[in-house]
Specification:
The chain is an alpha/beta fold. The chain folds into 2 domains: about 100 residues; about 170 residues, Rossmann fold (3-Layer(aba) Sandwich), CATH 3.40.50.2000. A 6-stranded parallel β-sheet has the order 7-6-5-8-9-10, with no helix packed on it. Strands 3-2-1-4 form a 4-stranded parallel β-sheet, covered by helices on one side. Helix 1 packs across helix 4 and helix 1 runs parallel beside helix 8.
Length: about 290
């Protein structure tokens, strides 16, 4: 009997790819009789995923057309959920908009990550501390970004330092940031660039997590690890998860110069002209720490 396939093509950053695992699960739930093939910009997040048959790296799938398209019984799911109306208007979570884009029945599927024992052992033996570990992610986006501060998602440096000052005696704080970003005093470790699965696996040995809208908040949700997530220019309704404590700024948006904005108010990379505040004191730090 000829094999039948679903082919899910997904591109974007690491956090988006973790979110895409929920869509992959929905595809499998909607088409249980078909083998699911995923083509992803970060196939690492699909390792050990029980819902997938094969995973390929985007741009690295030799003979794919011959093996899975030409003359085959395949259904292809390839589209950009960011440009759906519900996502633009922040009406629904990204995963739901993504499923509806592909006309999939959405059953509240959530992101999923699967680590084997070797993954877990590496995180433990390489990063364990004699203090409880608090993961603090202050900056997101590509590791190679030169800007020291991309305000749309990053934590203001001064407020991040206040968080460290309050927690450093009780916790070993592992700081996740980009190389060109501001350094914090009192952290136990600044995590360098490393294989993506290794980075994500460190969450498994952490006791507390203070995160931003970046890959680790998606990963923490996928691993069932409640975290505190600070949101600046993006929406917890579209990108966040109910498992987390999602905290919005208390500062008032008193600047409104959106001359370069098109379908969205703020650019992910933190266009300075769009910054809507006249202060960098965005969050109630005592609330974040609590």
């Amino acid at each position: 009997m000829e094999e039948k396939y679903c082919i899910f093509v997904t591109q974007g950053g690491l956090g988006k790819q973790i979110a895409s695992t929920a869509v992959a699960h929905a595809i499998k739930n909607n088409y249980p009789d078909r083998k699911l093939i995923v083509v992803s910009s970060y196939p690492e997040v699909y390792i050990n995923n029980p819902h997938t048959y094969k995973v390929f790296r985007l741009g690295g799938a030799p003979y794919f057309y011959r093996d899975y398209i030409n003359g085959k019984d395949s259904i292809v799911f390839y589209g950009e959920p960011y440009y759906t109306t519900d996502h633009i208007y922040k009406r629904k979570h990204l995963v739901q908009s993504w499923c509806e884009l592909h006309k999939l029945k959405y059953n509240n599927e959530k992101p999923q990550l699967y680590f084997n024992q070797a993954d877990k052992d590496l995180a433990y033996y390489k990063y364990i501390s004699n203090k409880p570990i608090c993961i603090l992610q202050t900056n997101g986006g590509l590791y190679t970004i030169d800007k020291p501060y991309c305000w749309t998602r990053d934590l203001p440096h001064g407020q991040a330092q206040k968080i460290v000052n309050k927690l450093k005696d009780q916790y070993a704080i592992y700081h996740v940031t980009r190389p060109k970003c501001f350094k914090l005093d009192g952290v136990a470790l600044v995590l360098p660039e490393m294989p993506k699965r290794e980075l994500l696996s460190i969450l498994l040995i952490s006791q507390k997590r203070i995160l931003i809208d970046s890959c680790l908040q998606h990963a923490a949700a996928a691993l069932g690890l409640p975290s505190t997530v600070c949101w600046v220019g993006t929406s917890s309704k579209t990108f966040g998860y109910n498992i987390h404590k999602n905290i919005d700024p208390v500062a008032t948006k008193d600047m409104n110069h959106l001359s370069d904005s098109f379908l969205f108010d703020f650019d992910f990379n933190g266009n300075e002209v769009e910054y809507p505040y006249s202060t960098n004191e965005l969050f109630d730090i005592n609330h974040v720490v609590a």
